[in-house]
Amino acid sequence: MFSNRMFNILVPIISVFLGLVAGAIIMLGFGYNPIRGYIALIDGAFGNAYFTGETIRRVTPYILTGLAVAFAFRAGLFNIGAEGQVIVGWLAAVWVGSSMEAPMIIHLPLAILAAAVAGGLWGFVPGILKAKLGVHEVIITIMMNYIALFLTNHLIRNVLTETKDTTDRVLESASLASNWIMEITSFSRLHWGLLIALAAAVIMWFLLEKTTTGYELRSVGYNRHASEYAGMKVGKNIVLAMVISGGFAGLAGAMEGLGTFGYMPTHSSFTNIGFDGIAVALLGGNAAFGTVIAAFLFGVLKEGSLNMPTEAGVPSELVEIVIALIIFFVASSYIIRWALLSLKKEGK
Amino acid sequence: MLDILQTIIPIALFYSAPLILTALGGVFSERSGVVNIGLEGLMVMGAFVGIVFNLTFADVFGDATPWISILVAMVIGAIFSIIHAVASVTFRADQVVSGVAINFLALGLGVFLTKQWYGKGQTDMVSEPFYSTNIPFLSDIPIIGPIFFQKVYLTSYLAIIVAVIAWYVLYKTPFGLRLRSVGEHPMAADTNGINVYSMRYIAVIISGALGGLGGSVFALTIASNFSQSTIVGQGFMSLAAVIFGKWHPLGAMGAALFFGLAQSLSVISTSIPVLQEVPSIYLTIAPYVLTILALAGFIGRAEAPKANGQPYIKGSR
Question: What residue ranges are annotated as transmembrane (chain A) (predicted)?
Answer without folding.
Answer: 7-29, 102-125, 137-156, 190-208, 238-258, 278-301, 321-340
